[in-house]
Amino acid sequence: MSRVGIDDNENLESVRASETGRAELIAAQTECTFAFTTEAGWPAGVVMSYLFTRDRFWLTAAAGRAHVRGAVRDPRVTLVISNAGTALPGRRMVSIRGTATVHREASVKSWFYSVFAQHLAPDDPDAFAALLDSPERVVLEVEPVRVAVSHDSTKMPGDGRGGQVR
């Protein structure tokens, strides 16, 4: 009988992140890889800071960026979040498929810049919010559709690296 993380590293269904584990990861991290399709049809991704609130992911970028154009052209995007750089133990990740909406409205920008700046720059949120508030900036709202893939190595013996079973 094969044992996941001991002599079987192929079927990792049992080490998917739980709903609680995914929520913990999303709350602990501030960056994701935003994956989209380019005009030429190639998959591409950029690292972006995010805020998760109102059951959505919220991000911002200059309107002319390739990933913004990609989201306008095809709103199907994927966000990949790992625990790299956080205090969370093990190696954790989640890949979330979602539908992006690009907002240019002042009403969205005003609440978002304030909350986003407080989240990412708590020592001086007003300065960060002022920097973000530029004429060509947009806010991207990503509504999760489904979790495509997730992983939590803390569910594996030896943290998934073949170490001692404790």
Automatic annotation (TrEMBL):
It comes from the Bacteria. SUPFAM superfamilies: FMN-binding split barrel. InterPro entries: Pyridox_Oxase_N (IPR011576), Split_barrel_FMN-bd (IPR012349). Residues 24-148 form the Pyridoxamine 5'-phosphate oxidase N-terminal domain. Pfam families: PNPOx_N (PF01243). This is Pyridoxamine 5'-phosphate oxidase N-terminal domain-containing protein. It comes from Rhodococcoides kyotonense.
